[in-house]
Amino acid sequence: MFRAFLTLIAGFAASFAAPALAQISAGAEQRTDCVLRINPTPASWIIEGFDPFGDSLAEGTFSVTFINEGGVECRFTPVVDLRQPPFGLSKGTGKPIGYALLNLSDTQDVTPRAGRSLVRSAQSQMILGPKESRSILYKLVADPDDVRDSGTFTQDITIEALDRRFRSLAGAPVVLGITVLPSARIGLAGAYMMNDGQAVVNLGELRQGVAPVPLQLRVSSTGEYDIDVSSANSGQLRLGTSQWFVPYSLSIGRNTLNLAGPRTVTGSTRRGIRRDSLPVQFIIGDVSNRRAGTYSDVISVSVTAR
Q1: Pair type for strands 299-305 and 225-231
Q2: Are the CB atoms for 53 and 187 separated by under 8 Å?
Q3: Which are the contacts of 107, defined by CB distance < 8 A and separation ≥ 6?
Q4: What are the φ/ψ torsions at residue 6 (nearest 5 degrees)?
Q5: Bigger pLDDT: 32 vs 179
Q6: How far is CA 235 from CA 97, 193, 252, 300, in A?
Q7: C-alpha 106: how far from chain center
Q8: pTM, two decimal places
Q9: DSSP at 124
C-alpha cells in the first residue's frame, strides 16, 4: 500500500505542476513589501524582588528586536501604547505606581503617560533593509515613592512600529511590572548608646517598677509584621556569672512580655507601608536583699514582615 500511494502522487505530479509554480510566484510577490516582526525579550518586563527599605534600585533593562522579513526596506518609529488605561503599575487595588520607560538606544523618554509615547518630529526613524534586524534597549524605572504595599504590580502595553503616516506596521504585547517584596526594618530611638554594634540601655539604679528610661522601637514595614523577642537570661538581670539576679519583664506598645521564653508581638494587621513607633518599657521586679553590683541581660529583638 505504501508504494502504491507514492506512485499515485507521482502520477498526478504533472497535472499539478502549473498551480504549484503559481503559488510560489504569488508568495514571492508578497515578500516584496516591508514585512516587520517585533520580538520583545522577554515578553514580561518585570523588576524582580524590589525591597522598598533596601539599597536596590527599582529599575530593569530589557530589549526589543525589530526584524524585517520582507523584500524592501522598512522605515518606522517605535512607539509604546497602553493596552488599557489608566497609566501606572497596579495590582487591581490602591494607587498605581508611576514609572518611566526610556529608549536607551535613542536616549528618548517613551513613557505612555497620556496613553501613547510622544512621537517627536525630530526623532529619527529606524530603517531596516531586507532581512535586516536591529535591537533597542529599554529601561523601566518605577517610582519608589509610590510603593505602598507588597505584591506584583503590572501594566499591559503594546510596542508598535509606525510609518510616517502613523500607520502600524507591526506590534507586540509586553507586560511591564514590579514585584515588591514583603519587607520590614527595626531600630531604636531614645536613651541608648552603641557599643560594639549593640544597643546598650542603662536602666539606672534598679528600683521595683517601671525603669524611667525613654525608649521607642521604630518599625518600618510593607504591611503586617511580627516582632520576636528573646532574653539570654530568661527574663532576669543577672550579676555577672553569679546566681544573683533581679526578675523583670518587658512591654512593647500595649503588650507586656514575660521573657521566660521567646515571645512574639503581632504588629498592626493593616496592609500598606507602615512606620510605627512603639514605646518600650522595662518593668523591674523585687530588688530587695540583692548583692550590690551591675545586673544585666541581653535581649534579641527582630521583625518579620508578613
Answers
A1: antiparallel
A2: no
A3: none
A4: -65, -40
A5: 179
A6: 45, 21, 15, 12
A7: 26
A8: 0.77
A9: P
